[in-house]
Prior knowledge:
The protein is mainly beta. The chain folds into two domains: 4-120, no CATH class; 132-146 and 203-329, no CATH class. The chain is 8% helix and 38% strand. It has three helices and 22 strands. The strands form eight sheets. A six-stranded antiparallel β-sheet has the order 1-2-3-8-7-6. The longest helix has 15 residues, at 219-233. The chain starts with 6 loop residues before the first helix and ends in an 8-residue tail after the last strand.
Amino acid sequence: MANITDYxxxxxxxxxxGLPYKFVKMSGRFSPETASIDWVAIFRASDLILAxxxxxxxxxxxxxxxxxxGGVMPGAPGLVAQSATFKSLDTNMPIDPFGVDGGASSxxxxxxxxxxxxxxxxxxxxxxxxxxxxxxxxxGNESYEVIYVPPGDTKLVDEVNSDGENDETPGTGPIDAxxxxxxxxxxxxxxxxxxNPNLPCAILVPTTEWNVRWRQIKNTTFRNVxxxxxxxxxxxxxxxxxxFLYNAQPETVLYAGQSISNSYSWRxxxxxxxxxxxxxKLIEKRVVWRGITVGHNHVWExxxxxxxxxxxxxxxxxxxxxxxxxxxxxx
Length: 331
């Protein structure tokens, strides 16, 4: 084995925080939009915790907003540290990176470790406290609410300007004979009263269930600020557009609850005050009816269509009270 005690004098590389290291190798894989790189280097065993603190820095707090951070790969700032493993550089000798056995002789423990870091793309590459979309993880799943329309509240009308025999041989009506695209204007016949009590008639109302995850919120910030803001918006709809939900329009998003968990940490300063991971559930309902965006404060009235519902002693309050959800992320 080479005389590794001479290594530090020959190491040219340093971390951003000034820790010397010797780069060994890397391997990985790429796909069209993601990547996973295993990066290997030698560090002094005594620098392990300092190196991990650089790779996995704690979140920063700007005002009342806590933003997760990530250490980036040397030469590839688009890749952020996801995990790290370490072992003794000499498999025949143990290591003591935490300094537990301070009275041991210099030959008891190996002074160097091999660290393997996995780097991959992350949502926290360029967080901005003024733009929640840059530090939130947003996923959505769209489905449909089905509204039954009584047949007695319907009329039937024929479309009369197509002379095609069937769908396979379109005529000169609204379907282009060459491309199959709809063209022209459909001419409607004279509406007639529906006399079939079994006519199936339902309206599909698009709804999107959004899950918005906010990681590593400072414990005291969550207790003293964020928890109160969550209680304020619970069961309400947004009064203003929501940039973090692709500018969802007012009254179309209902705050439907959250899941809260402690993010238990290895950092000494977080042992008794672990950060909070927050997952928020928001339901978007959006229909355009006669040029108006319809949301959660509207219902379908048979024979009329979408109408706004007012409740309360004076019948002048909406079903869901309106609140600015962006207040949740106010710095």
